[in-house]
Structure to design on (320 residues):
């Protein structure tokens, strides 16, 4: 286990290093730079001033030298300042991260809690009315555009019924229930959009497991239908589903741009979009690298879950 963690940690560091250079290069190759935007905002700035500022901030250096300067500063703990917000990067990043984890974490939790039971029951009763209903619900959830669903929920619950706010986020001193009012509609949008896909994965995995020989053996020994499904089949069926959940784990920290934009939710998705469009290199780079890191963490957690779900799976190199 220790060797496995060390190996995966070394691989993760290499991936993060490569991704940092790729992201930095792509942002650096975008047309324009912060000095160009300063020129457009200040008509009195001359070309000599622009040249001096580029030299001062190192923007006149080749891309690899600029990346090395940034990496050296980052390794020493200096992640830089956000040009758009005029604050240190972490002071801008952490509140947006908290909002995204609160929103997408709730949506992912609700999606899993709904998808696993209905997907399992649908697989245990194939070609039944319930199975067809789950398939119809799943395909509808996958097919409906999230922006259209968000607008319909706003019209129904905010405009017509007037029971929930149309967007924004509660004040910092608001109570729990007041804060939840602002969270319900965006969380419901993301849940409906993702639960169909999760239910389909659970159903497909359960159908595959229920055809296995050991399931027929358990039934032949007199195990009840619910015991076979929930105790013998579900644990093995969760192995491919865990992979999907691990990929969704990364989205907790990269945000959901469309939903956050429609509901004016200040999360990571909108922050990354604004930083890229505003040519805020430091903020965009750290935010994207943070999302990459958490995606790698999700992959590691998935591997650990594999070993817990199936004792035959071992972590690390097996002894010959």
């Amino acid at each position: 286990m220790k060797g496995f963690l060390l190996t995966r940690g070394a691989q993760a560091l290499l991936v993060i290093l490569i991704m940092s250079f790729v992201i930095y290069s792509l942002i650096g190759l975008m047309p324009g730079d912060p000095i160009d935007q300063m020129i457009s905002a200040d008509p009195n700035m001359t070309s000599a001033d622009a040249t001096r500022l580029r030299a001062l901030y190192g923007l006149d250096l080749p891309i690899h030298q600029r990346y090395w300067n940034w990496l050296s500063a980052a390794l020493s703990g200096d992640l830089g300042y956000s040009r758009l917000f005029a604050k240190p990067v972490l002071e801008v990043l952490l509140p947006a991260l908290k909002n995204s984890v609160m929103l997408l974490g709730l949506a992912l939790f609700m999606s899993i809690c709904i998808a696993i039971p209905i997907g399992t029951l649908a697989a245990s009763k194939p070609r039944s009315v319930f199975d067809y209903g789950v398939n119809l619900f799943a395909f509808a959830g996958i097919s409906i555009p999230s922006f259209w669903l968000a607008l319909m929920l706003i019209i129904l619950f905010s405009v017509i019924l007037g029971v929930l706010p149309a967007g924004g986020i509660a004040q910092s001193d608001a109570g729990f229930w007041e804060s939840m009012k602002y969270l319900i509609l965006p969380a419901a949008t993301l849940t409906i959009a993702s639960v169909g896909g999760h239910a389909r994965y659970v159903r497909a995995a359960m159908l595959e497991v229920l055809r296995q020989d050991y399931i027929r053996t358990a039934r032949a020994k007199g195990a009840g239908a619910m015991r076979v499904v929930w105790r013998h089949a579900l644990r093995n069926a969760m192995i491919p589903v865990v992979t999907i959940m691990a990929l969704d784990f990364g989205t907790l920290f990269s945000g959901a741009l469309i939903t956050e934009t429609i509901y004016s939710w200040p999360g990571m998705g909108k922050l990354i979009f604004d930083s890229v469009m505003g040519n805020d290199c430091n903020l965009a780079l750290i935010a994207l690298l943070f999302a990459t890191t958490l995606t790698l963490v999700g992959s590691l957690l998935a591997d650990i879950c594999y070993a817990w779900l199936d004792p035959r799976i071992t972590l690390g190199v097996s002894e010959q």
